[in-house]
Design a protein that fits this description.
By secondary structure, this protein is mostly helical. The chain has a single domain (2-570), classed as Glycosyltransferase. Helix content is 50%, strand content 6%. The protein has 21 helices and 15 strands. The chain has helices at residues 2-23, 37-40, 44-50, 58-62, 70-83, 90-100, 129-145, 151-155, 183-193, 197-214, 234-245, 248-268, 293-300, 306-322, 353-372, 376-397, 425-428, 437-450, 478-491, 494-518, 546-559; strands at residues 65-66, 101-102, 108-110, 146-149, 169-170, 270-273, 276-279, 350-351, 398-399, 404-405, 408-409, 414-415, 475-476, 525-526, 532-533. A hairpin with a 4-residue loop joins β9 (398-399) and β10 (404-405). α9 crosses α21, α10 (197-214) runs antiparallel to α11 (234-245) and α15 (353-372) packs antiparallel against α16 (376-397). The termini are far apart. The model is unreliable at 1-29 (pLDDT under 50).
């Protein structure tokens, strides 16, 4: 029986591979259509207002509310432009905006999660009084990040760029007034540690509804994000929810939608390298990103033809789908290196380690959930897919010379030997041969030592290239710390465990040092300064901050009985 099933799955794989090759470049998922996209996603109205520089942040305009239906607004715009002979002044445009749009803050109403607790049990894990008070402060931040859509969004969805969702959400913070996909993994883990199970479940149900409507989870909760996704962590969110609540029925009831999302990624984002199927980030939109319209247009002017400019827009959107927008990680210049700037972005031609490690994780989780449902056939099918992904990761992304996993350059057909914390992401998702963990641990620790990655008091830098982009040196980001700290822990060797704990402690202590200065949590930090705040990129550093809170809460639980605040002078290498 086992032999026949494996044989069947070999046949499935052959069909699957053929399907990938035929559909990955031609078959595009058609997302749900929104009338407001004619205003906020493309067209002359969007171009005119975004290029006018009325708003310092391009996201401001596309988050506004229409006063009239989209078709009426478009007609009003055409009449307005004719009356101004297609050359409106700044004052003219401001009047048009005031007549036709309302500010985005009216999308939400105040909402305080009913399952919020003043003293969640995770605080009992924290021995140090300063950290215990800080943990309590972080728990209170969830209330400030809670958002519920006003009834008018449901009654008149065509007037908004926000995607209506049934349940309230916890937003990242700052300029990000909607859900974001991969951010929410760490937000949800933080909520679960805070015993806010109902809020976490509601957010997960929102994401599941996105798969029902789009076939995947969009990058964020706005219609202009609806043609790209982000690292697919919904299966891991549900696994976390089940681990905390033991609600196995929830997993069983929703595994079919996780399978649908898995199919979307495996049918629309794949390439074949040396006979192995691997996934890449991509995009299904045209033109500049609406939320960064002016920036994209201005940066595209270095390209001489519309075709090349469109290729640039697609690369930029793919970089946004990665969640790492933007970084030298995605640069490929004429010499095949990572030097350059945004004009060199080639994200669609780089096979990313973490995306494939996450898809492996997805397959394992789906297999587990089908096993819970007593569906042995489906469970074995997804175990088989996990095996195939793991073989591809080992064959293409593991680099024996470097002793670590590396992204792969499809243009130059070579590994990209540049440091990114995601190089260690297979350790986080257990996408490695556990029986070989001793050897892998030695190789990975040698890699870390060679690059002197321990010599950064503010956290592990995202890259070692100082390009000015926000996902480059010297910035240190919460999810990157989590991936590496958790990954080293998963190796289960004493040496890797010690480094995991050291880096986990350091991240908590540096974040606390920054918190004491202004009583704020930030989306990113400075790896070179203990307690330093990050910068660079397309916008100013944002406060809140959802995934930062989630990571710190989990680390406080993990290390709370032994960790205490650390003073800057205690770092010998500063």
């Amino acid at each position: 029986m086992a032999f026949s099933l494996v044989f069947c799955f070999d046949l499935i794989l052959l069909v699957f591979q053929s399907s990938f090759i035929e559909t990955s470049s031609s078959e595009q998922h058609k997302p749900f259509q929104f009338a407001a996209c004619d205003v906020f996603c493309h067209g002359d109205l969007l171009k005119t207002i975004q290029m006018s520089k009325i708003f310092q942040d391009s996201k401001h305009f596309v988050d506004m509310k229409l006063k009239n239906l989209p078709n009426i607004t478009i007609d009003n715009f055409k009449k307005f432009m004719r009356s101004k002979h297609d050359k409106p002044s700044m004052d003219d445009l401001e009047l048009f905006i005031n007549d036709n749009f309302e500010d985005s803050v009216k999308v939400f109403t105040e909402w305080y999660p009913k399952d919020w607790k003043l003293k969640p049990k995770f605080l009992d894990h924290i021995k140090n009084n300063e950290f215990k008070i800080w943990g309590s402060d972080l728990n209170r931040i969830w209330k400030t990040l809670g958002r519920k859509l006003i009834d008018d969004v449901y009654n008149n969805p065509d007037l908004y760029s926000i995607i209506p969702v049934k349940n309230p959400i916890i937003i990242p913070g700052g300029r990000f007034l909607e859900f974001y996909y991969w951010d929410s993994y760490w937000i949800i883990r933080g909520l679960l540690y805070s015993e806010m199970h109902k809020t976490a479940r509601g957010m997960i149900l929102n994401f599941l509804s996105m798969i029902e409507r789009f076939g995947f989870v969009p990058n964020g909760g706005r219609i202009y994000y609806a043609k790209r996704s982000q690292p697919p962590l919904l299966a891991a969110m549900i696994e976390s929810y089940v681990d905390f609540t033991n609600d196995k029925k929830f997993a069983i009831d929703n595994v079919g939608l996780l399978e649908k999302e898995f199919d979307y990624w495996r049918k629309n984002h794949v390439v074949v390298v040396d006979g192995h199927i691997l996934a890449v980030y991509g995009d299904n939109s045209t033109g500049p990103r609406p939320e960064s319209y002016r920036e994209d247009v201005n940066n595209s002017l270095v390209f001489p033809t519309p075709k090349l400019r469109q290729a640039y827009y697609s690369e930029i959107a793919a970089g946004a789908e990665s969640g790492m927008d933007f970084s030298s990680r995605w640069f490929i210049n004429e010499n095949g290196t990572n030097q350059g700037g945004l004009k060199n972005i080639k994200c669609r031609s780089i096979v990313p380690v973490e995306l494939n490690a996450i898809l492996y994780w997805n397959a394992k989780i789906i297999a587990k959930f089908y096993s819970m449902a007593d569906n042995a056939e489906k469970s074995m099918k997804y175990m088989f897919y996990a095996k195939q992904i793991l073989e591809a990761i080992d064959a293409v992304l593991w680099n024996e010379d470097a002793g670590v996993w590396l992204d792969y350059d499809l243009i130059n057909k070579k590994s990209r030997n540049y440091f990114v914390p995601t190089n260690l992401s297979p350790l986080w998702t257990n996408a490695f041969n556990i029986s070989n963990s001793g050897n892998i641990s030695k190789r990975v620790l040698d890699y870390i030592s060679k690059l002197r990655l321990n010599n950064h008091p503010g956290g592990i830098p995202t890259t070692l290239v100082n390009s000015g982009e926000q996902w480059d040196f010297p910035n240190a980001w919460p999810p990157m710390q989590y991936i590496v700290v958790k990954g080293l822990e998963n190796l289960k060797t004493p040496e890797a465990g010690r480094l995991s704990k050291l880096w986990g402690h350091r991240w908590v202590q540096s974040n606390y040092e920054a918190y004491k200065k202004a009583y704020k949590m930030y989306e990113k930090y400075d790896s070179e300064v203990f307690g330093g705040i990050g910068g660079g990129g397309e916008y100013n550093v944002q406060t809140g901050f959802g995934w930062t809170n989630g990571v710190i809460i989990e680390f406080l639980v993990k290390y709370g009985r032994e960790i205490k605040p650390l003073k800057t002078k205690q770092f010998g290498f500063i």
